[in-house]
Design a protein that fits this description.
Blueprint: H1 2-17, E1 30-38, E2 41-51, E3 54-55, E4 59-61, E5 75-77, E6 80-88, E7 97-101, E8 110-115, E9 122-126, E10 132-134, H2 141-158, H3 160-172, H4 176-198, H5 206-225, H6 234-237, H7 239-261, H8 268-300, H9 302-309, H10 314-336
Parallel strand pairs: 1-8
Antiparallel strand pairs: 1-2, 2-3, 2-6, 4-7, 5-6, 7-10, 8-9
Length: about 350
């Protein structure tokens, strides 16, 4: 009895530490687009992330050969701070350095898209550890992969709602092979809708999608709470179907994030594939960490994993309430956001 109370307190503590008040994707990356207009003229579009109602303290800086290496003041639009300007760079940008000042003090990324008129688009991902790059004269597809694959990994590892959905699946499906099939169905489904939305074949508004994603987690929490020995719930009888159905919905969430990041127009398939592979790598990392952690805990405190798996046990009930409580908060917050 004392052990059960101890484990109950531990789960409650862990639940209270979860970032339940954080949005699903806490911080979108910055975006810098530089396109050739002809001759020595270049058009620059610069988008900074919003931080508590103010632009993040970062600035885009073009090579010194440009007449106007930095742009005018930013204005707020569509959830971010943006500005655009035209500059003259002689003899061009090839070989010059593009830098994001102040990025080294942040934890965000900046995606830079460089579009010469008669050459392939170059895409670079800049981070706090790598705040600049030199414009190459001969770009290649590796630049796109190197930029969008890490963005996919970062997105899924920072997408707490998607990870909470996967975590609930891990709690619901104890059978290893069923679990593999369930995760695979989720992957296939969100890959389909992510591609369809990216190419413009299907389109759904972002806020309702985010609200229903929270509702999908709430559904799994309800399934966890109502489990009984010998009575399989819908998600236990047809785990692949349930996972595939909700995966289609989550794919729209991934597509919305990718739309905000931006895609190189001439490399859309490669960028989409790279981002999706990054999402899957991040998802596999999360699943592996959870499973390995569960294995280690089962060797140290066997009662903990047994309690989590046993339907109706205090630990299983509390876990369901923690997952469901976070999802319910997100759902209400996102629905209320329709009118703000």
């Amino acid at each position: 009895m004392r052990l059960a109370r101890l484990l109950t307190a531990l789960v409650l503590l862990l639940g209270s530490l979860l970032p339940s008040t954080a949005p699903a994707h806490e911080l979108q990356p910055g975006y810098l687009e530089i396109s050739h207009m002809g001759g020595d003229l270049w058009r620059v579009f610069w988008r900074k992330p919003d931080v508590r109602g103010a632009p993040m303290a970062i600035d885009a800086r073009l090579p010194e050969a440009c007449v106007q290496p930095t742009g005018p003041s930013v204005t707020f639009a569509n959830g971010a701070w943006v500005t655009a300007w035209t500059t003259r760079c002689s003899p061009g940008l090839a070989g010059g350095k593009i830098q994001i000042d102040g990025l080294e003090t942040t934890r965000t990324d900046v995606l830079v898209r460089f579009e010469p008129r008669d050459q392939s688009v170059q895409t670079h991902r800049l981070t706090s550890d790598d705040t600049s790059f030199q414009v190459s004269e001969v770009p290649n597809g590796w630049d796109v992969i190197r930029s969008y694959l890490p963005l996919g990994i970062d997105h899924i590892l920072e997408g707490i709602d998607h990870l909470l959905f996967v975590f609930a699946l891990l709690l619901l499906i104890p059978d290893r092979w069923k679990l593999i099939g369930t995760i695979t169905a989720f992957t296939v489904a969100h890959s389909i809708t992510m591609a369809a939305a990216t190419f413009g074949w299907v389109n759904l508004p972002g806020p309702p999608v985010e609200a229903v994603i929270a509702l999908s987690i709430l559904f799994l929490a309800s399934e966890l709470l109502q489990r009984k020995d010998g009575q399989l719930r819908l998600s236990e009888r047809y785990p692949w179907t349930v996972s595939f159905s909700f995966g289609l919905l989550h794919g729209f969430g991934f597509a919305g994030a990718l739309e905000e990041i931006g895609l190189p127009q001439t490399e859309v398939p490669l960028a989409l594939l790279s981002f999706n592979l990054g999402v899957e790598i991040g998802q596999l990392i999360f699943v592996a960490v959870v499973l390995v952690s569960g294995f280690l805990v089962s060797r140290i405190v066997p009662a903990l994993t047994i309690g989590l798996r046993r339907p109706g046990s205090p630990l299983a009930v509390i876990s369901a309430y923690v997952v469901g409580g976070i999802a319910a908060f997100w759902f209400i917050e996102r629905v209320l956001g329709f009118w703000t």
